[in-house]
Amino acid sequence: MPADDASAARRPTLTEVAALAGVSLKTASRALNREPNVAPSTGARVRDAADLLGYRLNGIARELRRGATSALVGLVSGDLANPFYSAVASGIERELRQHGLLLITANNDEDADLERNLVEAFLERRVRALLVIPSGNDHEYLSVEGSRGVPFVFLDRPPDRLAADCVLIDNAGGAQSAGEHLLAAGHRRIAMVADLARMAPQRGRIDGFVRAMRAAGNDAWEPYLRTEVHDVRHAERTVKELLSLEPAPTAIFTTNNRLTTGALRAMRGLAEPPALIGFDDFDLADVLGTTVVAHDMSAMGREAARLAQERINGHTGPARTIVISTSITARGSGERPPR
Amino acid sequence: MPADDASAARRPTLTEVAALAGVSLKTASRALNREPNVAPSTGARVRDAADLLGYRLNGIARELRRGATSALVGLVSGDLANPFYSAVASGIERELRQHGLLLITANNDEDADLERNLVEAFLERRVRALLVIPSGNDHEYLSVEGSRGVPFVFLDRPPDRLAADCVLIDNAGGAQSAGEHLLAAGHRRIAMVADLARMAPQRGRIDGFVRAMRAAGNDAWEPYLRTEVHDVRHAERTVKELLSLEPAPTAIFTTNNRLTTGALRAMRGLAEPPALIGFDDFDLADVLGTTVVAHDMSAMGREAARLAQERINGHTGPARTIVISTSITARGSGERPPR
DNA sequence: GTGAAAGCGCTAACAT
DNA sequence: ATGTTAGCGCTTTCAC
């Protein structure tokens, strides 16, 4: 660190800049903000003084004066190490940055209480909008906020007991397509490995899949339904167990990226692997030849940011829901016939 | 949105809470902050009033009064959609949250000017510390800040013309191991596909690899060196081109996760693929059987956050450098013999 | 145990 | 074109 002791203590304020430039506080403010009605020579003198002192605007003071609302947008989500969340976050950040807004992120660790604390912390910081990929189930505590002008947008899961904008994936539709895709390839004994059924997206995916089976008059899937599978290891074990059944399922549908990873691990090295379709696309799925229910995660973030943006700009009106469509990306694993 | 028009406009302030509770401003402040010297009954009355009004502390005002420094730590990095950056960000956030700090993230789009703008924006917001995974090469503009008490930590790439804490990967060591690993399997014609050579981590990886080759007296790699390969598509093309040479290389070393992805795409479906080692571990590398130079990205974030934390707590002293070690994770692709 | 006054650094409103 | 005054919402003296 350079030893610049003299200035180490405190940052210079606008008052000091003004004093050095020999002008009033307000003139200094005008000059640095490039407002009109400042003589060019005065402006230059002020800016020189600012540079000399190493002055930097105090955004906190500005924001307080301008109405105590920041240029920050909060995102509370699951762990960014999960590519689903990070892809969404990336889409959000990119959109916000276009509008001069910054993104604060916090991980709820899939804990409803922590989620609530983080939301409170963001609100204290006077975020302009709050984006939530919820973990908790009750969001009524947010209802006062919505009415106080902090817009919320929910992603991936609709808010509970609260009307608010949200961006969802067509979970039921995507899962139904997956089911139909496997049926069309001739499968009947189709296993579904799902995460916690209490989570809305999982519910939708389960329902969609079941709908496809019912419509085809197929009930051979029923012994192979597994829910409450929440991590990769558990998914791997579950798929191994499914494949050791007699008769074994000839196809597997996994309802999110973690579970698909587990299934791929379980199936590694199998001479005659079952067919597989996973919900959520992922890196290298093309190399692995894994058929997936794909959807645009980055667009999801972008749309959510856009909704927030519009509310920030004063848009009123009823809560809106945007549904991100899905499509089957066939890469081989979902097209394997029953053996 | 619930139609709660009356309160939609403005948030209640502490003054209003105090008025409703029939106490002075200061007493209200004490009560809500749970400071000593407040009669229990008074405290309860104030808190009731706060609940009734839907009061929420204005963190901006508090921060201004307390010294204009926020509870925010900034991270400027590449796109969070890249698992390397998101893993690091996740490690940082987790560590900061333990200490009541929040993470603001912004993507520099690998553009030095944008990076500088984002850094400025963060500093205006009075972040407590600034973490940078640099894209630009000149960081001298930050030197005034360092001396003004905003700690910086650089990740992955050392700062240029500036002494600051940083957390680096043992790039040269990891790449050298990769080279030795391939040599030990009997390879001589080893291709290296590298990213922009001007970036320090790439330089280190290139140097480490070359050192391994020199030490073994092997120069058969030289025709197969490719640098300035910056994205997946380019990597895929480059590897295809390498494999069509006569004689073709029998092994490939890719110097980051993007390039490894490209190589895997290029090698997809090959009956006799060359050996492959990639720098950076990745999801599903186990399923694909890809040997990698692994390192703990989450630990990298954690260490960086820790360094920042210590500086925030007043630690002074010379700039420190932490080096994250690497290790070869053998999964098959790097152990294939030359054909 | 409680309150009055001052002020953090800036910008808005109103002079001049 | 420039300056003066007030005040954002809170915490910090210092007094009672």
TrEMBL record, chains A, B:
Entry GO MF terms: DNA-binding transcription factor activity; transcription cis-regulatory region binding
Source domain of life: Bacteria
SMART domains membership: HTH_LACI (SM00354)
Domain HTH lacI-type, first and last residues per copy: 12-66
Keyword hit for Signal: no
Keywords: DNA-binding, Transcription, Transcription regulation
Statement: the UniProt record of this protein carries the keyword Endoplasmic reticulum: no
InterPro entries: HTH_LacI (IPR000843), Lambda_DNA-bd_dom_sf (IPR010982), Peripla_BP/Lac1_sug-bd_dom (IPR001761), Peripla_BP_I (IPR028082)
Pfam families given in the database record: LacI, Peripla_BP_1
CDD domains associated with the record: HTH_LacI (cd01392), PBP1_LacI_sugar_binding-like (cd06267)
SUPFAM superfamilies (alphabetical): lambda repressor-like DNA-binding domains (SSF47413), Periplasmic binding protein-like I (SSF53822)
Cited PANTHER family: HTH-TYPE TRANSCRIPTIONAL REGULATOR GALS, LACI-RELATED TRANSCRIPTIONAL REPRESSOR
The name this protein goes by in its record: LacI family transcriptional regulator
